[in-house]
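Standup notes
- HV: blocked on the assembly model, inputs below
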Amino acid sequence: DAGVTQSPTHLIKTRGQHVTLRCSPISGHKSVSWYQQVLGQGPQFIFQYYEKEERGRGNFPDRFSARQFPNYSSELNVNALLLGDSALYLCASITRGMRTSGRDEQFFGPGTRLTVL
Amino acid sequence: AQRVTQPEKLLSVFKGAPVELKCNYSYSGSPELFWYVQYSRQRLQLLLRHISRESIKGFTADLNKGETSFHLKKPFAQEEDSAMYYCALVGAGNMLTFGGGTRLMVKP
């Protein structure tokens, strides 16, 4: 099992463009979460999906959207990119996921490094 | 609102010295707290969670609701403990809220 996979590894975009990031969870996991990690800070929660439905949303503008597919993989979309969107975007695969609890474990992917110029 | 604060960006200790990484939280309900670790060139991974009351790699953490703290401790630091440590909290809305992280450097 390769664990959580994310693609691409690195991405460079210019302001105003759109980006799509992809995540494949661990086999058998039905829930994923997305995080943004700006350099020097801890990860910030963006979204959680369980069984293709949004189960949680962080304090991010509507330019950020996501979806989960029937095979439980997920995409994070960011429109109208700003310089401040430059960050490492992490995806986590969750053991249960209907509701994140102390009994769940989140397994993180390697992240996608997005640079907006 | 839920918030996690790690007051130290960097903690440097010598091998064999005790380590305490501080974590304070703000949450109105009953929090569920975690410590995550990221070793160099590796993924972020769970170190321990408060409900398990376990010791992992010699690390322990006790939830103190009175002081709203969840400090991570190890009596004798090892060089391989050098890493980035994040305290995190799960509260409402399935949100896992992370602190800003503390870089632990264990010197030989």
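- HV (later): unblocked. The mean pLDDT of chain B is 92. Chain B has no helices and eleven strands.
- Next: hand off to the docking folks.
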